[in-house]
Amino acid sequence: MGDGSSIPDVEDVPQAVFRALVNEHSHNQNEKHVGYAVSQSLTELMHYLEPSQVIGVKAHAKSRDDDETFKGISPEGAAAYCVDVTECLTTEIKMNYDYERYGRFPWSHIKDFLEMKTTPVDDLTVRSLTLRLESNTIRDELRKVLTDMGLSDTDYLRNPFFFTLESRQAKDEERDYVKKHNDEEFLKRVGYRVLELQNMYSLRAQQGKKDPLARTKSGDVYPRDFEDMAFNYNDKTTQNFGALYSQFLINKLKEPFSRNLVNKTRKIWTSDGQWKRESETDVDDITEEATS
Known about the structure:
By secondary structure, the chain is an alpha+beta fold. It has one domain. The chain contains eleven helices and ten strands. It has helices spanning 13-24, 42-45, 99-102, 107-115, 136-148, 174-180, 184-190, 203-206, 223-230, 247-257, 288-291, and strands at residues 31-37, 54-71, 86-98, 125-133, 161-169, 193-201, 214-216, 219-221, 262-269, 275-277. A hairpin with a 5-residue loop joins strand 9 (262-269) and strand 10 (275-277). The longest helix has 13 residues, at 136-148. The chain is globular, with a radius of gyration of 23 Å. It starts with 12 loop residues before the first helix and ends with a helix.
C-alpha cells in the first residue's frame, strides 16, 4: 500500500487533486460542473440502462382513485360552513432495491407489473439511483490524477466504478431539459426534478475495504474516506473540488444514457469567494482569473 509520504494529511487531498486537475489535465480553476440526469422516470431511465448496470434504486408512486373519492361526514353546527371532509382511496407503491440483498435488478418483472391493467400507476419516480460502470478510461485517467497529487499506490483503483444520483428540484435552465425529456402527465404528478450526481466510488471503496492507502498524521486513510476527499469533495466556499465535478467524469457518465439524458450545470468561482451557477452571477461577480 502507499506510504502517503507526499500527502501531509487527508484534509489536503482535495487541494492536491484540484491542482492535478488544473495543472496536468487542463481544467479551468475557476469553473466546475455538476452532473445530473434530466428524468426521474424509471421507465425512461431503463430505455438506456441494462439491468446489470443497476445496483440500487429507491423509487415510489402514489395514485388516487377518483371513483372511490366521496364527500365525508362534515361536522355539525357552525363548523359545517368552514370545514370540508373528503375521503378517498390512495395507493402508494415503494421500491427499495439493493443488489447485495436481491441480486440482479428484476426490470422485466417490474415492467410487466407496471403494464398490468390492475396496477394503478404505469411508472415509478426514482429518488435515488446507483449504477456500475466499467471504464478503463476512468481508471487510467484517475490514476494519473492520483499519481500527480502524490499517492504512490494507484493500482488499488479498479473497475467497476459506482455512481449514485439523487433527486432534487430542477433549477433555471434545467427545467427546459426536464420538460423536453419527460411525459407531460408524469411531470404533473412529480413536478420538475432532476437526479443530481452525488458520488462515485471505485470497486474497493464501494466494498468498504479497510486496507490503508496512506498513513498520515491523522491516522490511516482507507479507500472510501480517501475517495470522498479526492473524488466527491464539494464545498460552495472553497476554490477546489473533487474529480466528480470535472467535465471528464460527467461525460463518461453520459455514455450509458446517451448524451441527451445526462447534462451538466456550470458553476463559476466568483469574486466574493463562492461557487455560483451562471444564472446567479453577473459580470462583477466573476473573478479576474475566470475572465482572462
